[in-house]
Model the fold of this input.
Amino acid sequence: MPVAVMMVVMMMFTVVMMMVFVLTFVMMLVLAIVVMVVMMLTVVMMVMLMLIVRMLHLIQVFCFHDCMFLKFFRKQKYDTPDATWLQNCVQKNLSCEPKSTAMQKVRAKKNLGQHFLTNQGIAARIANGFTPSAPNVILEIGPGMGILTRHLLNRPGADVRVVEIDHESVCYLMAEMPELNGRIIEGDFLKLDLQALFAKPISVAGNFPYNISSQILFKILENRQMIPEMVGMFQKEVAERVASAPGSKVYGILSVLLQAYYNIDYLFTVNECEFDPPPKVKSGVIRLTRNNVEHLPCDEELFTKVVKTSFNQRRKTLSNSLKPILQDRRCDLPVFRQRPEQLSVSEFVELTNIIDGLLKN
Done:
């Protein structure tokens, strides 16, 4: 009898434990389903929030750029410009219908590297930075809201043109500065054919976007016969590099290539607080004035290649950094034991002639 009772008790205990186990499993399953539902709802809400933010952004773009189709159409023109279209832009700018009687300030766009100068005194100093021999035709790159443009227009005898990629800025300038009518080129300076647009040499000015400052300088260098003088504002580090002398830690490719054809003056430094929005670094204003060098006394294409290759490994001596050009050729001249930042422009010319001779042997 006790054995039978014990067996019944054990069976009941086993049944209860199984029920507890099943109940626990069901509760965990329900909890897992609840967690998955909550996660899915969270993802859906995040997606919806992103869509709402995107819609608000598109609405904002629509308000500032008339319509997305026109914006897309204009972008195609930037991507595939030709001289005829750019000349038409000079004569007749793309239509800009003001949204209200009083124009609002232009939004600074991060993708365009826009930091608008706000100090009139600094703008005046930039405009007055040209030498008396500078060409009267002045092309300003990226005028924004025209703070520098007004001072350029006040220069005696100045014939000011501006090139601006931002359509909102173009509309602002057309509304606020009617004297620029027919003088605004809406497009990308880096894609302009300057010889097709201008019949004679020009001066260049601007508060240049940091993100394309080096490209602007190379564009000026390529068109050095058209641009005898430039006064512009760059990131302070770039301005110092361009104006630096041999032996400086910042002396580099831009320093040598530009100083080969231009005399360079570092004019002054501009603090971050003089811009809206303020950049994270200081700016520097420099002046490039064409020197008397028409052609270097060496192979100019090889000269550029030697300079760029040398500074690609600036910490190495020239015998090592120039191996991609020299390959297996050796030279024991003292110059090859120096580092690239130690050489002046004339010494790079001499080095180019030495290498040219080695390559021809």
Summary: The chain has three domains: 34-65, 78-290, 300-360.
